C-alpha cells in the first residue's frame, strides 16, 4: 500500500488537485468495516484514514462514478438527500475509520477540560475540539 501511494503521489506532483479528491492507488485496502460487502454495491466507497468507507449512496439510474470538480460534484445531491434522511428520519452512519476513546471516572471531565481547548459538551452532544500539547500547541483535532 505505502509503495503504491508514494508512487501515485510522486506521479501527481505537478497536476491540478481538486477539492476532496480521491486517489485510487493501493485500494481497496484491507481495512474495511463489517458492512463493506453489503454496502459496496449500493454506494461509492471512499478512503479515510486507511479505511474503505461509504462516501455516498446512490439511487438506481444515478451516476455512480467518482467525478472530481471545482464545483458541485455528482455526489452533491445524493449526500444532501442522505443528510435530510438522517436528520429528519433515521439512518446508520459507519464510523469505523474514526478512533474512539472511552474515558471514565470521577475526574474524567476535568482531564478532558485540561486536554482540550474547547468546552466539553454535555452528555448526548458533540463538538469539534483541539487537543493541546503541554505548551498549548495543537496536537490533534477530535470530535
From TrEMBL:
Residues 40-143 form the GCVT N-terminal domain. GO terms for cellular component: mitochondrion. Pfam families: GCV_T. It comes from the Eukaryota. InterPro entries: GcvT/YgfZ/DmdA, GCVT_N, TrmE/GcvT-like. This is GCVT N-terminal domain-containing protein. SUPFAM superfamilies: Folate-binding domain.
